[in-house]
Amino acid sequence: MLDDFAKATAANPGADPDTQRADDAIVWRAYVARRDAAPLAALFRDAILTLTASHYDGAQRAAWAAVADDLDAFDARLTRGVTLVAEYAGKPVAFGQLFPADHVEMLYVAPGWTRRGLASALIARMEALAREAGASTLDTDASALARPVFERAGFSLVAQEVVRRGSVSLPRFHLCKPLCAVLFSG
Is residue 104 part of a domain? Predict the structure, then answer.
């Protein structure tokens, strides 16, 4: 179901303007294995090394960015679930991944493209896919930089965690958003 949505969106870029384009310049499409791996790995590294400097030290950023050093493994990771790409003039400027159907696995925006609503638009698209798949909640493990973006989208903090990348510890935040309304009677 999730893959069908992403494939249909990529196959018909002129389809529904509400789900296809944030504006006339940004095109939303599904990840293309192998072809998109190198540009998204570069975006991933740039976003981490540049944008998270106020939250993480140099060793933490380097360890985190190193995840993209093995391009084959990074490509394999991006082919899981649904990975959506926002591009401008044929160049990726943001991407996000839903894997499994109720978890935002990745969300990155290129330096120079922040504060334009791309992260919020990706979250909204992934939330719609999660709802379509029947998920009752949507969760993520967010960085200190991404946490406020998710909270503005209605996510709440569940726990603060620490993840290890080699010998380096990185703080992150587990956030969750209910997707189904709960009815109370009384």
Answer: yes
Of the CA atoms within 13 Å of residue 58, those in its CB half-sphere come to: 0
Question: Would the pTM of this model clear 0.90, i.e. be above it?
Answer: no
130's tokens = 């999660």
Domain that includes residue 54, residue range: 2-135
Residue 47 resides in a domain: yes
Give the CATH number for residue 62: 3.40.630.30
C-alpha torsion sign, points 154, 22, 102, 73: negative
**Beta strand pairing status for 82-88 and 156-165?**
unpaired
Q: Tens digits of per-residue pLDDT, 34-55? A: 999 999 999 999 999 999 999 9
Tell me the β-bridge partners of 85: 29, 95
